[in-house]
Amino acid sequence: MVKSSQQDRFTRQLHDRVLQVWEQIHRHPFVQGIKDGSLPMERFMFYMKQDYVFLKDYAKLFALGAVKAEDTETIKWFSGLLHETLHTEMDLHRSYCKEIGIGEEELENEKATPINLAYTRYMLAASQQGSLAELVSCLLPCMWSYHEIGTMLKREAGNLSGHPYGPWIEMYASEDFGSLSRWLKDKLDEWAEGKTNQELEALQNHFLTTSRFEFMFWDMVYYGHEWPV
Ligand SMILES: Cc1ncc(CN)c(N)n1
């Protein structure tokens, strides 16, 4: 099989399509506040708790991916992603929370805010009804944009020793995290080949929608949007 060049890769087109949304995420005061450490810890902990709830549902997308996959290699990758999310990534949240006295029981009982709920319900519904390519196009902005943010913050933040958000930056900038997101990108490129324009448009729409949800999630944790009544 001839590998497509970087330029005509489907995921490159997706990236171009959401560039403005992702640039606004990079400039978001929450992300900038993580970089220079000026973000109040109280805001960060609200994010940690909401993100823990988010990741519990997000992990289910990988379980669904394993159910939908047909070859053993792909099933293994999805089960690896499920494991990494529940253990490595959520350990980061457990550890930040433990430091300020928030235990696992409190984390388990945390309830999703409206944006958080809308975001995960969108992904779960689209992934249950759609193809494996649809599932990946829904969940990819989450992995890919975080690796971009982590890499940018690590490059720009300077020395991370003693930085309050150093462990967060290190996790998302890590090569391990990057390689998981690269595997998803390669798979989506492979599965997009031979799809009709209508099918490709559906993938683009999922990618744009969840990129917008990513922005809204940052906004939600920055401004503390909760249930109005
Ligand atoms: C809302 C959100 N988006 C993405 C990620 C990275 N897995 C995350 N932890 N939380």
Keywords summarizing the entry:
Thiaminase-2/PQQC, globular, Heme Oxygenase, Chain A, binds 5-(aminomethyl)-2-methylpyrimidin-4-amine, thiamine biosynthesis, mainly alpha, 229 residues, 0% strand, EC 3.5.99.2
Question: What does the model show?
Answer:
The protein has 229 residues and is mainly α. It has a single domain, classed as Up-down Bundle (Heme Oxygenase, Chain A), CATH 1.20.910.10. The protein is built from ten helices and no strands. The longest helix has 28 residues, at 41-68. The protein is globular. It binds 5-(aminomethyl)-2-methylpyrimidin-4-amine (NSP). 5-(aminomethyl)-2-methylpyrimidin-4-amine (NSP) binds at residues 51, 54-55, 142-143, 146, 214, 217.
